[in-house]
Amino acid sequence: MGNNTLTPGQIYEAWTAIGHKKGTTPAFKLLLLGVLGGIFIGLGAHGNILANYLFADIN
Fold this sequence. Notes:
By secondary structure, this protein is mainly alpha-helical. It has a domain at about 25-59. It has helices spanning about 10-25, 25-55. The radius of gyration is 21 Å and the shape is elongated.
């Protein structure tokens, strides 16, 4: 098993690359990803409410 740790300089380079990529992402793509994320959160909440309603009487 190899050494999978990064030096502080490598961590800095990785984080700055991630930040640059996020900062240069087109606004339409960010909006689309935000809407899709909200839809998935809403579906999970709806599933929770539905499961609580359907299984509320089971003892």
